[in-house]
Design goal:
Largest sheet of chain A: none
Oligomer: homodimer
Radius of gyration of chain A: 21 Å
Largest interface: A-B, 47 and 48 residues
Number of strands of chain A: 0
Helix content of chain A: 55-70%
Strand content of chain A: under 5%
Order of helices and strands of chain A: HHHHHHHHHH
Shape of chain A: globular
Distance between the termini of chain A: 37 Å
Structural class of chain A: mainly alpha
Chain lengths: 268, 268
DNA sequence: TGTAAACTGCGAACGGTGTTAACTTTGCAT
DNA sequence: ATGCAAAGTTAACACCGTTCGCAGTTTACA
């Protein structure tokens, strides 16, 4: 197997402290490829993200891209990783903007930023959270960049939840009132992420997360169009309910409901 | 534009009462194409559903399929329509199996059957409810078979909700306590489907539907794998909560939790 | 400095895809 | 029997991912 872009991103490989000029050029090219691919994704849809199309826009030929990625699928997976990183970054920014201690504000800010990003980058969101990717089997034993980033993403919201619980715990059901089959899974998950939380709290967090991401996905994928033009009020309603269940106080979004409709949404 | 399979399904076209032998043969071929395509979808994944692959398995050549469908996309859309029909049928069966008047039972049966179908036909579910289809723009003004079926599907759950409300109304918030922006949308939707229900009830129904389909989608698409091996207990928990909000009484599923895991899941 | 190795691109080619066009065969109706 | 439309074929086009061999450049090292 040839050197992959994932390996290329590992700048400190082979004990070298210095980043050679070659590596810098290479990283720049990888970045340009990603940006070009993403631009095509946004402008022309996922099935237009073709090796030849990317290369064409870069003034190259398709086989040259194989110097940077082992396959088309790996290129997509790399982009998915980048997208996770971007999303996590924006969520962190949104969280940190809220004054420390205001857990309700942090939760609302993160949730709203998640929906905002999803709607502003719907094509990208489809790549991350749509039906499982074309060749996403990750048949390799290799760590899988995208999966790693996905885990970091899951960790973000969970750490927010953790902080929330530590600062303002809310009443939860005792462990022995949880369905045994579910209890075991929750215990396993708790051990896996290494936190000390009542299982009832973890269950509550998962429920809230499912409502959040489930609702956003339906909205972004257009599966609420049959009834709603603008799902934002429903989203806010859900935030209020979810917040209440977590012992938080709901406050409406700072700006009035944004115009929202009529974004360019280029491409066919 | 050539005669499409959708038109072919319209057996009573052009004043002819009799269904000619030719039309019967044609319909049979259309059915065989659909079945072959679906088999490939299930066994080898969505990107293997290729005109040439379908034709090969039928002992034909790819261009022959153009006698029955205007394009690859239209063939997929036809299958989507069939899938909606199948899903709606199974949901109706599940609902009618429950003794009349037991609205809680009907709601639970329909919800569980929805999840069961989604999990047993995950590839198909991805086609119906994943990120918007490849070429699904429906740029034509034509009614769009798939969209029509989708509407029937939405109508099914809504009619179940309607019956539920009529038999056992539950307290809802008055219209003037609903966010104005949402209120207008709900009113529009109510007029569109032609029912007479308080807007608060419609809002509640939509919320429940979002939780239902959102949760099932996350599960089927594997976006809960980060924490759960088997999402069924969480699904049941959600059913209990949603049912409570609708004034229904929750009862656990009739059979013990099915083995569930380890279905063949053929193909790569 | 000279040279070997590594890197990066190109062009051609292979098998596969959707799609179109022209051509043959088939079967039914007048 | 003749004619015609449906249903199938083959050939071809443009595009796709991917592989291979070759050239040009850049780097590393003796």
């Amino acid at each position: 197997m040839r050197r992959s872009a994932f390996a290329a991103a590992d700048t400190k490989g082979r004990g070298g402290v210095a980043e050679s000029r070659r590596d810098r050029l290479r990283a720049a090219t990888v970045r340009e490829i990603s940006e070009t691919a993403r631009r095509i994704l946004v402008e022309q849809g996922p099935e237009a993200v073709t090796l030849r199309a990317i290369a064409r826009e870069m003034g190259m030929t398709a086989p040259a891209l194989y110097r940077y990625f082992d396959s088309h699928g790996e290129l997509l997976r790399h982009i998915v990783g980048d997208l996770y990183t971007e999303l996590v970054g924006e969520l962190w920014d949104a969280i940190e903007t809220v004054p420390r201690g205001d857990m309700s504000g942090k939760f609302l800010a993160a949730s709203r930023q998640f929906r905002r990003w999803a709607r502003a980058n719907s094509r990208e969101y489809g790549l991350l959270f749509g039906a499982p990717m074309p060749g996403n089997n990750s048949e390799d034993d290799r760590p899988d960049f995208a999966a790693e980033c996905a885990r970091r993403f899951g960790g973000l919201f969970m750490s927010l939840f953790l902080e929330l619980w530590q600062k303002e715990p809310f009443p939860v059901v005792p462990d022995d009132e949880i369905d045994p089959g579910l209890r075991d899974q929750l215990r396993r998950y708790r051990d896996q992420i290494g936190v000390t939380l009542p299982l009832g709290a973890i269950r509550q967090f998962l429920q809230c997360w499912i409502r959040l991401q489930g609702g956003v996905s339906l909205d972004v994928f257009g599966h609420l169009d049959f009834a709603l033009d603008d799902a934002e009020p429903m989203f806010e309603l859900m935030l209020a309910e979810v917040g209440a269940v977590l012992g938080l106080t709901y406050t409406p979004p700072p700006d009035g409901p944004p115009p929202d409709e009529g974004r360019p949404e280029a491409g066919r």
